[in-house]
């Protein structure tokens, strides 16, 4: 008995979905993007997966933000509006942007956060601070991978704006560092938990 019924999301049968997935997997291997040897495949699996690993419960959750332009400068309002969250550190290469964000934190009746504005690599000092649990990255794309890795290696969980990396190797680096450090790295994309995304995860 075959299952050709369309799924509830609209039009894709089980057989079509599986066939498409198999074709995609084959194309992945033929394209040169997949590992070319068993040794390379093993190198891409250095640790136990972080999928399904819960975040440690902390209260308050202490947040650091890197990048306080349009995205980071508006997202800080969301963090400040969550009970149990405290913004403790801010980083931007533009001192004025960081100061404006620090004033928002004070208006929310939280202690003034530490501010890091000493050039392109000020984030490296910020992520080393012990009173941080989660680092949010909202900088230009080319910095996302580097900043996320620095934060995880410093023992912090990370949420990064899209894209998490500019190349496939960037993404594998994030996976490897996350598994090694046991820190979560989450791409903050609106449809991460949509119907189709969760179907692919279950596959």
Which key terms come to mind for this protein?
203 residues, alpha/beta, 6-stranded parallel sheet, 8 helices, globular, disordered N terminus
Residue share in helices? 40-55%
Determine the strand fraction and express it as a percent band: 5-15%
Q: How many alpha or pi helices?
A: 8
- What is the strand tally? 6
Radius of gyration: 20 Å
Strand order of the largest sheet: 3-2-1-4-5-6
Biggest sheet: strands, sense, closure?
A: 6 strands, parallel
Poorly predicted tracts of residues = 1-42
If you average the pLDDT, what whole number results? 83
Q: Topology as H/E string? A: HHEHEHEHEHEHEH
What is the overall silhouette? globular
Our measurement of the CA-to-CA distance between the termini, rounded to an integer number of angstroms, reads: 21 Å
Structural class: alpha/beta
What would you note in describing this structure?
It is a single chain. With 203 residues, the protein is α/β, with parallel strands linked by helices. The protein is globular and about 45 Å long. 42% of the residues lie in helices and 13% in strands. Strand 2, helix 4 and strand 3 form a beta-alpha-beta unit. It has 8 helices and 6 strands. The chain starts with 13 loop residues before the first helix and ends with a helix. A 6-stranded parallel β-sheet has the order 3-2-1-4-5-6, with helices on both faces.
């Amino acid at each position: 008995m075959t299952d050709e019924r369309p799924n509830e999301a609209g039009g894709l049968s089980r057989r079509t979905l599986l066939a498409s997935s198999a074709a995609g997997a084959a194309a992945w291997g033929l394209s040169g993007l997949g590992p070319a040897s068993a040794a390379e495949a093993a190198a891409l699996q250095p640790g136990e997966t972080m999928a399904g690993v819960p975040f440690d419960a902390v209260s308050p959750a202490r947040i650091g933000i890197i990048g306080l332009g349009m995205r980071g400068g508006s997202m800080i309002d969301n963090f400040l509006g969550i009970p149990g969250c405290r913004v403790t550190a801010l980083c931007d290469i533009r001192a004025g942007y960081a100061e404006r964000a620090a004033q928002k934190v004070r208006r929310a009746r939280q202690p003034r956060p530490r501010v890091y504005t000493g050039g392109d690599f000020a984030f490296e000092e910020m992520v080393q601070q012990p009173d941080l649990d989660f680092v949010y990255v909202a900088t230009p794309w080319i910095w996302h991978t580097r900043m996320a890795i620095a934060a995880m290696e410093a023992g912090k969980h990370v949420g990064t704006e899209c894209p998490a990396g500019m190349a496939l190797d960037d993404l594998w680096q994030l996976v490897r560092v996350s598994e090694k450090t046991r820190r979560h790295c989450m791409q903050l994309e609106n449809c991460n938990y949509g119907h189709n995304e969760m179907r692919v995860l279950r596959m």
